[in-house]
Every structure is written in structure tokens, then in C-alpha cells.
From TrEMBL:
It comes from the Eukaryota. One of its GO terms (molecular function) is carbohydrate binding. SMART domains: CLECT (SM00034). SUPFAM superfamilies: C-type lectin-like. It comes from Amphilophus citrinellus (Midas cichlid). Keywords: Lectin, Signal. It holds the Pfam family Lectin_C. This is C-type lectin domain-containing protein. PANTHER family: MANNOSE, PHOSPHOLIPASE, LECTIN RECEPTOR RELATED. The lineage of its organism: Eukaryota, Metazoa, Chordata, Craniata, Vertebrata.
């Protein structure tokens, strides 16, 4: 969503981030300085854009990781909060065609767009080894070059 930087109290610069917490189907948006999610899963939508690796580093620096989407319910929830092409925690960098979630969750449920992943397709200029969510109604997934600059979604599980 967005990132606010404010001067609070001692003059220390504190970054405030917008976090969406998902609790049994109820979502709550919290403005906070840390990605702390004691009870429910939290999602952070980045304001800035970057490569898949930069996105993952940002999430890990927050003791979270890029989002792992393992159910249609989670996918539907994310569709209500994302507004831009966003990296998710899925890649086939290690072995072409072997898509893996960052936390090792088996890839059982997927939401690929029609004819994706295509690794760049017939006329490809480069490999496509990182997955992102698109902005169509179903927020379908596409593989694209890991160095593309996109926003991202971090997920923190309590
Ligand atoms: Ca998840
Ligand atoms: Ca690939
Ligand atoms: Ca593709």
C-alpha cells in the first residue's frame, strides 16, 4: 500500500508500514513500525518496486518472507488487497519447470494464467524464473524475468 516516514518523539526517523492482517476471514489494516503479527497472518504490500531477490530480502529483513499462496481462500483474500503486479514466493530458478515455494510448501494448488508459466514463450529474450500476481480479476500468476521491477507481497505467519 504505502510507506510513511515520520519524525516521532525523540526525532528518530521511524518508518511506518501499512500491514493487512487476516483473521478468520476478517481483514484489518494496521499502521505499524514493525511487521508484528502475533495472532493472524499479516501481509505487507510494498510501496516500492524491485527485483524478485530484492523483494525477498526486504521480506526476510522483516522476519517474514515472500507470500506463499496455498489455498483458493488465501488467493481470494489477496485479490482484495493487491493493486499492482506483485512478486510472490514462487520460482523455478534451481531447475527449469520445477516451481518451488520459498518455504518448501508443496505446489499443489496453483493459479497460473492461461498458457503460463511459459518461461518467456516462443520468442523469448530471457528466462522467466520468478512468479508474480497479475491485476486481472482473478489475480492470475505469470512467470517473468526475476530482474523485472515489480512491487511485492510479504507474508508473516505468527
Ligand atoms: Ca500463505
Ligand atoms: Ca523458468
Ligand atoms: Ca510468462
Amino acid at each position: 500500500m504505502f510507506l510513511l516516514t515520520g519524525l516521532l518523539g525523540t526525532g528518530k526517523v521511524l518508518s511506518l508500514i501499512m500491514v493487512v492482517e487476516a483473521c478468520g476471514g476478517v481483514k484489518r489494516t494496521v499502521l505499524t513500525s514493525e511487521l508484528l503479527c502475533p495472532i493472524c497472518s499479516c501481509y505487507l504490500l510494498s510501496e516500492s518496486s524491485g527485483s524478485w531477490d530484492a523483494a525477498r530480502k526486504d521480506c526476510r529483513d522483516r522476519e517474514a518472507d515472500l507470500v506463499v499462496i496455498d489455498s483458493p481462500e488465501e488467493q481470494s483474500f489477496l485479490a482484495t488487497i493487491t493493486q499492482s503486479y506483485s512478486w510472490i514466493g514462487l520460482n523455478d530458478k534451481e531447475q527449469e519447470g520445477q516451481w518451488k515455494w520459498v518455504d518448501g510448501t508443496p505446489l499443489i494448488w496453483t493459479n497460473w494464467a492461461t498458457n503460463e508459466p511459459n518461461n518467456g514463450g516462443f520468442m523469448k529474450l530471457y528466462e522467466e524464473d520468478c512468479a508474480h500476481m497479475r491485476t486481472d480479476d482473478h489475480r492470475t500468476w505469470n512467470d517473468c524475468s526475476c530482474t523485472s521491477s515489480l512491487t511485492w507481497i510479504c507474508e508473516k505467519i505468527p
